[in-house]
Amino acid sequence: MSHRRLLLVLVAVVIWAGTGGAGAGVAQIDQPGKVRYDGHKLLRVQVASSRDQLTLDAIGARLWTCGGTGVGPVDYSVPPDALQALDLAGIKYAILQNDIQALIDAEAAHIAASNQQRGLSWFADYKDVDQISAYVDSLVAQRPDLASRFIVGLSLQGNEVYGIRITSTVGSNKPAIFLNGLQHAREWITGMTTIYIADRLVRTYDSDTAVHALLDHFEFLIVPVVNPDGYIYTWSTDRLWRKNRRNNGDTTFGVDTNRNWGYQWGQLPQGGSSGTTSSETYRGTAPFSEPETAILRDWVTARPQIIFHVDVHSYSQLVLSAWGYTSQLPPDAGLFDVMNAGIAQAILAVHGVTYVAGPTYTTIYPANGVSSDWTYGDRNILGWGMELRDTGQFGFILPAAQIIPTAEEVWGGISWEANWLIANALYIRIPGGPVTAITPDAPTTFPVELFRASQLPTPGSLRLFARIGASGMFTQSTPSSAGANQFTATLPGAPCGQSVQYYLEAQSTAGLTVDYPTGGASARLVATVTNTTSVFSDDFETNMGWTAGVTGDTAVSGQWVRADPIGTAAQPEDDHTPAPGTQCYFTGQGTVGGAVGQADVDGGRTTLLSPRLDLAGRTNPVIGYWRWYSNNQGSAPGADILVVDVSGDDGVTWTRAETVGPTGPGTTGGWLYHEFAVSSLVTPTANIRVRFIADDSGAGSIVEAAVDDFRVTATVTCPPVCPADWNHSGSLNSQDFFDFLTDFFAGNADFNNNGTTNSQDFFDFLTAFFAGC
């Protein structure tokens, strides 16, 4: 925009504001009547620059998107006559709702009508602060053996912040789950959702075996209204009020309590809260300056049994993990990846509604001083924020008909999370999957991750147990530390043609032993010792002959590029190759702080084609790669997918090797390893090609894909294994006999692999020993 045009826009805005338009309907002080939003429109605005932001501020636009403004699509409500100024400024927007007051009036009429009826479900409409409090009391009265009311403290205006504790009489000293709603006053659906969960726990304990098991294992601590002052104000005066009711001393009111928590409060690498009192994200004068956050801080601190926390918000349909204040990943990033995906899938399974999951900073926006960062960063509690329905059609004024469906799907996610924690005291993971093939006569290292789950791991307790062959004792070793929760384990060297069996074990601080795989020695993993040779390996740090884009591609954005990716909720922040590696192929490069869909695949397909691979005469060639795929909505079968094809005739014909998506495991991001045997699909020739096709032929999806660390291996035939070479030295001699006797009398000489050590093993070994090798 030219300086002259910008000046004209600002002059027009000033003249429009002088007629009473700017800021109309935006309450800053208490007033006797209700604030009305007649003719105000809900827009999704494409904010392209700081100039656009200045224009929006000048016309009195009110932020709906729950966070920093940033660049990209942002939801605002604007006064009736503001569209002319936006048009003059050349700001692009879409109208989501033509009259916000009409939505508010319809909501109020529905509530009034519901209150006149008897026998209507309590969740058929929204309830005010007194009705919610009374319902908590009714649940306690209904099942005093399960439920009790507790007081957290008093709000700024002296209103009670309370909660309901729900657990069975089975057991004691149980771990606790903490849920809260209505930190932001206008997010009415969050209070109803937390009360629905309380209702379901109390009402169905005797009839639902799953609920019964959860209450026998956990205590649920639910605070439905964190911000009662603001919530009361949304019913009495301003339906769209967000903050608490702090008088800031300068004609403005309110502190955003979810920017007032003490962990990384006010840290501003790229925004995340505001020091301006009129801002919707005003963080207050100091950490925990507000009674609402201070009393919850003290209450949580006094309850070390809390192991996970969900702060319920609206809207956007998101599952948000740490961190909010920075794009750096937390120590438990691998654990959050697994749980985020599981929660999102559990939500999807209830009503088919998609929630996008990922770290707060890159999934939605920077946000510092938030409760979930504090519970995780300060109290070592697994903390989440959850943004409920919808994605902008109604926003904060979600129709009452969606209360129960929304609450049901949220309960689906939280109950999955609770059951996962019951099943997992600790979480041991081998990134990329277990080692299944190793090189002869050399130790093999592999990465291991150890995370807390319902319990914390004892430092230094991780152990690897391994043995060569199918019998004998397992030898114990200690994996070396490779950083927070990261370890490197080492399998022993073994002769070609043998196998190495192994499993992992760790202890929790509560004294529980956890195996991976479950069952330990009886469920051991097996790695075959094969003479593998590398045919081709590419970490994409240099260009080794790949082609990004081919004839027939139709995507209008998000084409394959090789670079250091800028992360979003859908696209990786880092490549897969360990440092100093930075490069990979991925579908479109966005900008720092850009919207999640800024450079995703749109309008069709984009192809990444490998160089020609010579596999003629190779034995069992295997192609492996690390890939990333993300799809936030799903689509019809065959659309919005990532496919991998292989050709044996230089790309004349193609055979499908893998299809990823549109829904299911691996569709919400994360680096995953996949490999396939070339011979099972095409004849190995000198003209092998591989292609990766990312497709967005369906409607409404954010599709991203990436590929890294591509490799091709082949095997060399091993000589026959000598069974009587008991110590695996590579030769047969008297030491094998003595070593066998030692293991035999120790009960660890199952020579014939029938599951027990007995005299038959001794006779079978003697036969093999005297037969020689």
How would you portray this structure in words?
This protein is of the alpha+beta class and 773 residues long. The chain has 15 helices and 33 strands. The strands form 6 sheets. An 8-stranded mixed beta sheet has the order 5-6-8-7-9-12-10-11, sandwiched between helices. A hairpin with a 6-residue loop joins strand 16 and strand 17. Helix 6 crosses helix 13 and helix 10 packs across helix 13. The relative contact order is 0.08.
Task: Using brief descriptors, characterize the structure shown.
about 775 residues; alpha+beta; 8-stranded mixed sheet; 6-stranded mixed sheet; 15 helices; 33 strands; about 25% helix
Topology:
Elements: H1 3-18, E1 41-47, H2 50-58, E2 62-63, E3 72-78, H3 83-89, E4 92-97, H4 100-115, H5 129-142, E5 147-154, E6 160-166, E7 176-180, H6 188-203, H7 209-217, E8 219-223, H8 228-236, H9 291-301, E9 306-314, E10 318-321, H10 333-351, E11 356-359, H11 360-363, H12 371-377, E12 382-388, H13 403-423, E13 426-429, E14 437-438, E15 444-452, E16 463-468, E17 475-477, E18 480-481, E19 486-491, E20 499-507, E21 513-516, E22 525-529, E23 531-538, E24 547-548, E25 560-563, E26 584-587, E27 605-609, E28 622-631, E29 642-647, E30 655-660, E31 672-677, E32 689-695, E33 703-716, H14 734-745, H15 759-771
Parallel strand pairs: 7-8, 7-9, 9-12, 10-11, 14-22
Antiparallel strand pairs: 1-3, 1-4, 2-3, 5-6, 6-8, 10-12, 13-15, 15-19, 16-17, 16-20, 18-19, 20-21, 20-22, 23-33, 24-27, 25-26, 26-33, 27-32, 28-31, 28-33, 29-30, 29-32
Helix pairs in contact: 5-6, 6-13, 10-13, 14-15
